[in-house]
Amino acid sequence: MLVRCYRAKLSVWAALCVLVLCWFYIYPVYRLPRDKEIVEEVLRQGEVWQKNQTGIDLYRKLLTDCCDPRRMFAVTKENSPMGKVLWYDGEFYHSHTVNNETYSLFVQDNPLQLPLKKCAVVGNGGILRHSRCGQHIDQADFIMRCNLPPLSKEYVEDVGTKTHLVTANPSIIEKRFQNLLWSRKAFVDSMKVYGSSYIYMPAFSMKPGTDPSLRAYYALSDTSSNLTMLFANPEFLRTVGKFWKARGVHAKRLSTGLFLVSLALGLCEEVTAYGFWPFSVGLDEQPVSHHYYDNILPYKWFHAMPEEFVQLWHLHKSGTLHMRVGHCPPQDGGSS
Ligand SMILES: *[C@@H]1O[C@H](CO)[C@@H](O)[C@H](O)[C@H]1NC(C)=O
Ligand SMILES: *[C@@H]1O[C@H](CO)[C@@H](O)[C@H](O)[C@H]1NC(C)=O
Ligand SMILES: *[C@@H]1O[C@H](CO)[C@@H](O)[C@H](O)[C@H]1NC(C)=O
């Protein structure tokens, strides 16, 4: 009787502990500034920005030490030989053992010409709409984009035309292209807008994402497309996630944008970020759509966009990267 009572008490305490832990997980002790405060802070800072070589060197070193982007950002024959176990970074206990079939799909080694000079990382935020940043973006030496964004005529002035690396989430293959189980033409055709860039796919992050990613690889290689498929290395994604977690980003998973910025900080001499603005109101107090091409909101608890923005803003203030959050100034000589 006594033992049973004791046990019951114990489980009540255990349940309470779990509740409290959950509470702290969902509502961390520190307080994130409210959106309005962040907007005000950004307005105060204005267009003032000065490059800080010390900050750039520091972050390249920090990221090299934690995550080794040069060697690890993609799955290569070099870092993932036959028999290597790749642990999915978005799943609890799943892995893929590199075999004959998958090994042959990996690039030999990091294919990028390093170091990259001026890099532009283009997020898909609605803030880009009417920004006239297209020319600025296209002038970068290496341009990274997120999640196969549309680059059709109506957006060119704001987002530019060139791409050197574009990420593709396997879920897009599923939603937009019927998982490539039927025709692959629509997919191959829609990829042409990215020229001869790298398609960067997290093929080994979630179990259901592997097959669509491999199918995307075959669709491109069978049609002798000019694009090169790179599979994101789950080990790299995991270490970058840890890097930001230690700096206060409590998301279940980092956004693609922050991954790309981290990659750029590790590989580029200069980084400018466009289209990162996770707030529904712009600097001119006008509503801002979620993406520059639509206003579909993401699943709420998955990413922690304002937290990520605060981190990026710190880097901006210290001169480590340049965030463009408003309109881009007209260029001398313009389009002539
Ligand atoms: C430059 O970056 C370093 C390292 O992040 C930082 O300690 C320093 O304060 C920055 N300098 C300026 C002027 O912001
Ligand atoms: C890999 O495949 C090739 C032919 O496709 C075969 O000759 C070779 O033995 C295979 N290697 C292993 C380790 O299975
Ligand atoms: C690949 O690039 C070449 C040269 O830029 C171009 O002529 C060709 O049409 C491209 N192929 C495809 C499938 O887009």
TrEMBL record:
Pfam families: Glyco_transf_29 (PF00777). This is Alpha-N-acetylneuraminide alpha-2,8-sialyltransferase. Its EC number is 2.4.3.8. CDD domains: GT29_ST8SIA1. The keyword RNA-binding does not apply. The gene is ST8SIA1. It is found in: Golgi apparatus membrane. The lineage of its organism: Eukaryota, Metazoa, Chordata, Craniata, Vertebrata. Belongs to the glycosyltransferase 29 family. It is a single-pass type II membrane protein. The keyword Glycosyltransferase applies. Disulfide bonds join 119-268. GO terms for molecular function: alpha-N-acetylneuraminate alpha-2,8-sialyltransferase activity. Keywords: Disulfide bond, Glycoprotein, Glycosyltransferase, Golgi apparatus, Lipid metabolism, Membrane, Signal-anchor, Sphingolipid metabolism, Transferase, Transmembrane, Transmembrane helix. One of its GO terms (biological process) is N-glycan processing. InterPro entries: Glyco_trans_29 (IPR001675), Glycosyltr_29_Sialyltrsf (IPR050943), GT29-like_sf (IPR038578), Sialyl_trans (IPR012163). It catalyses: a ganglioside GD1a (d18:1(4E)) + CMP-N-acetyl-beta-neuraminate = a ganglioside GT1a (d18:1(4E)) + CMP + H(+); a ganglioside GD3 + CMP-N-acetyl-beta-neuraminate = a ganglioside GT3 + CMP + H(+); a ganglioside GM3 (d18:1(4E)) + CMP-N-acetyl-beta-neuraminate = a ganglioside GD3 (d18:1(4E)) + CMP + H(+); a ganglioside GD3 (d18:1(4E)) + CMP-N-acetyl-beta-neuraminate = a ganglioside GT3 (d18:1(4E)) + CMP + H(+). The chain crosses the membrane at residues 12-30. Pathway: Lipid metabolism; sphingolipid metabolism; Sphingolipid metabolism; Protein modification; protein glycosylation. GO terms for cellular component: Golgi membrane.
